[in-house]
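Supplementary Text 2. Reproducibility record for the structural model of the 586-residue chain.

All settings were left at their defaults, and a single model was retained for analysis rather than an ensemble. We include the record here because the model underlies the residue-level annotations in Supplementary Table 4.
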Amino acid sequence: MLFEAFKRNRAELADKASFLIAAGDRSVPIAWRQFARDVETVAYLIETRAPRAKIGILGENSYEWMVAHAACLFAGAVAVPLEVTLAPEEIAERLQFVGASVLVHSSLHLERARAVGKLMPSLFVAGFGSKNTDRVMAAARAKFEAESTSVFDRPPRDENETAMIVFTSGTTSKPRGAELSIAGISAFAAFAGAQLSMKPGDRSLMLLPLFHIYGICASYAMLVHGVAQGVCPDFRRIYDAVERFRANYCFLVPALADVLAAKIERRGATAAQALGTPIDWVLVGGAPLSSATRERLQRLGVMALTAYGLTETTALYSVAPVAAPHPGSAGQVCKSFGVETKVSDRGELLIRGPNVLKRYYGEPGRTAEVLSSDGWFHTGDLGQIDAQGFVRITGRASRTIVLSSGKKVAPEELEEKLLSIPGVKEAVVSGDGASREVRAEIFTDLSEAAIRQRVDDLNCLLPVHKRIRTTSVRNEPFPRTPSGKIAVAAAVPPPAAPVESSVSRRMFRVVGACAFAALGVLLLNVLPQALERMGVTFSGPAQIVWEFVEEFGEIVLAVFAIAAYFLSGRILLRRKAPDRARKGTP
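Retained model, structure tokens:
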């Protein structure tokens, strides 16, 4: 489907814009004719110099990045998108792990690419967007036009073979390389087209990072449907980009939706007033969209649609239709294009189809953990699907807090409630099952006293087992992954001290009491004899005390045991104190 769409657009939209490039205060269009020609030229270079190779792509969002990636897909190579924030050592590690032999990069990342080349002497490193690259492209174009046929004039590549290795975002675990196919991109593009109002002549933005699967799929969906994409390499310029390229709609993550809303609010009462043109809708995926952000966009005249998917599912599971957004859901499941969805007996969302990863590269054990023998991928997310196919995410299985009482707490549910409190910008909820303690860490402009009062008010509305026991306030945003998600693994505080449950607490005290009682027995039976042998005698007040101890030994032992029981409790509390102090508990 992807190949046919490119071939069709090359013919039918030859003079229409495929991309829009910023040039000063203007936007310059790149026609479909030029885009298709650049793709087939790079594809020719790949076929002649690195056939069937694994090719790393390193660079900010750009026209050249998309040309390189599309050429890999159509030439039979395997594209390996790389995060621009990775250190050279990390890039080299990923490229070596997947067996890549080529690294292409933008001029902005030239030094980093050179550093990778020194770590991997056999790696072929080439830049795009430079004068030298332009010369190589011109020579290659002349050669293939003279002696070869274009990739668009040959039978298409098998869409089901591995075409990309995309590393997961790593918010809760080490990133893994998911092997994905062109068929997955095709399914996303087709379903997005069915749910959203996209047509030739529309304008949008290439805004999401292209090393992330959502950014890749969103860009191809727009290309398939003839939408011109304004190239935006810096997400911080989202408002300027929307205004410059006159975008009709955008694909965003929640953090970018908040940035866009804030900038519109500073310039007008609605998006149309602030930008001079309306924004029909924004599709928000990559992380849950809070009700506060959705309502904020709605007040600005922007329809907020939601989508859900993972790297392993080529960003596809559900997309909300423009005709029926169904606020509060994560969109409507895909029921066609060979995609199937269902909920397991334990409430986990499953999906099967051409969009599901083939495997985690080089990790058969990890693959078997998530991919059943009959093709069902276990998302790890808990949720529900109603009769109309709308999905509601209730939590991440790996983040669910299972209390010692057997009850379960979904951090995402509490995070949503915290984010609905005015003044709360970000929130991460975690907990410890043994102690039944639910903790919240909050980034807010509110004072510590004010946020604690609001959390107390929220607790009054919650069941006892879901109440937030410990609240800490941070003065800076949470660390995020390059795709804009909160890095939960880095944000969640370490668990509390190991001695937590009421049973453990009682055992600790009983053992302490027995130990002190044993010490008392030892002193009452051994000490008098030892003192007598040494000839030690008492006089005055000391003699009175000693005679009392000898006469009422049982009472002394009881006092020792009682003191030991409560003293052990004090020791236990002292062990927990540093952890509580670190979290800012009063």
